[in-house]
């Protein structure tokens, strides 16, 4: 399933596998001036290819290497001679060998599918990507993944955040996330004079400073409460129940790969990095 929305020169593609007549667990790609930010999942690659059939495309930038953001890389690269794919150096082994470098759980294979290998080039913190009309600054923002990048267009104030910021109040975390790194990365991008925030899923935000500040405050407050209960001798399951509520459907679907427990553990395991 694919939905297209336009925000001036930015075209947004919302992508999800259709299950039971509905799109499930959406992810987002953006097209700006011949540059595609992320490519959705493998299951939606044919739909994205069709939507881009008449579009001039010079490059892809992957905000990170998770399966729901690199799924159409290979298809687009095969069809477009000379199409470059840019990603953080840590992402390149995953792009080259997704099955070997990033095994997927069953729910991930069902919802997003296996990406095919693609050939990427490294781009790191502080680099500038130039299109015909825009200049985007690359900002290294680890936490959601070790290879996560955001993109910022300073003249327009556009901020592409991938999955670093998708809104909401997190009550669960996936294996491999580092919550204190997420907070540090959110603080870094919150200092930018952004006017519009384009997330890797969820709605576009027109008040980035307020949204980012609220997210940081929530995560920091939750972290302090986790640490305080831990100091009082509470175990991880008890902390998870007290602060994050009861069992979530997401935990059942992912067989615990995404869970309240993993959120609590991330606060505890990474607390010495603050």
Structure in words:
The protein is an alpha/beta fold and 274 residues long. Helices cover 32% and strands 24% of the residues. The chain has ten helices and 14 strands. The strands form three sheets. A seven-stranded mixed sheet has the order 1-2-3-4-5-6-7, with no helix packed on it. A five-stranded mixed sheet has the order 8-9-10-11-13, with no helix packed on it. It has a two-stranded antiparallel sheet with strand order 12-14. Helix 1 links the parallel strand 4 and strand 5. Helix 6 runs antiparallel to helix 7 and helix 8 packs across helix 10. The model has no long low-confidence stretch (mean pLDDT 94).
Task: Give the topology, please.
Elements: E1 2-7, E2 10-19, E3 22-32, E4 35-37, H1 45-51, E5 59-61, H2 73-79, E6 84-87, H3 92-96, H4 98-101, H5 106-111, E7 121-122, E8 128-130, E9 135-140, E10 149-153, E11 158-162, E12 173-174, H6 179-190, E13 196-199, H7 208-231, H8 236-244, H9 249-253, E14 258-259, H10 260-269
Parallel strand pairs: 4-5, 5-6, 6-7, 11-13
Antiparallel strand pairs: 1-2, 2-3, 3-4, 8-9, 9-10, 10-11, 12-14
Helix pairs in contact: 6-7, 7-8, 8-10
């Amino acid at each position: 399933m694919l939905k297209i929305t336009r925000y001036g020169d930015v075209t947004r593609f919302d992508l999800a596998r259709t299950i039971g007549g509905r799109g499930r667990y959406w992810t987002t790609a953006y097209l700006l001036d011949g540059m595609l930010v992320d490519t959705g999942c493998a299951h939606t690659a044919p739909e994205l290819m069709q939507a881009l059939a008449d579009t001039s495309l010079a490059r892809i930038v992957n905000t990170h290497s998770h399966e729901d953001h690199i799924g159409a890389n290979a298809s687009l690269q095969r069809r477009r001679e000379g199409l470059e794919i840019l990603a953080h150096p840590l992402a390149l082994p995953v792009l080259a060998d997704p099955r070997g470098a990033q095994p997927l759980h069953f729910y991930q294979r069902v919802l997003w599918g296996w990406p095919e290998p693609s050939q990427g080039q490294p781009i790191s913190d502080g680099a500038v990507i130039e299109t015909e009309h825009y200049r985007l600054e690359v900002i290294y923002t680890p936490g959601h993944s070790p290879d996560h990048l955001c993109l910022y267009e300073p003249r327009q104030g556009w901020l592409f955040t991938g999955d670093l910021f998708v809104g909401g109040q997190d009550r669960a975390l996936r294996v491999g996330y580092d919550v204190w790194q997420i907070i540090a990365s959110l603080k870094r991008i919150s200092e930018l004079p952004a006017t519009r925030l384009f997330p890797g899923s969820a709605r576009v935000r027109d008040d980035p400073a307020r949204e980012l500040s609220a997210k940081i405050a929530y995560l920091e407050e939750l972290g302090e409460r986790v640490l305080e209960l831990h100091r009082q001798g509470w175990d991880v399951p008890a902390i998870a129940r007290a602060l994050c509520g009861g069992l979530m459907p997401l935990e059942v679907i992912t067989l615990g790969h995404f869970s309240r427990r993993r959120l609590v553990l991330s606060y505890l395991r990474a607390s010495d990095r603050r």
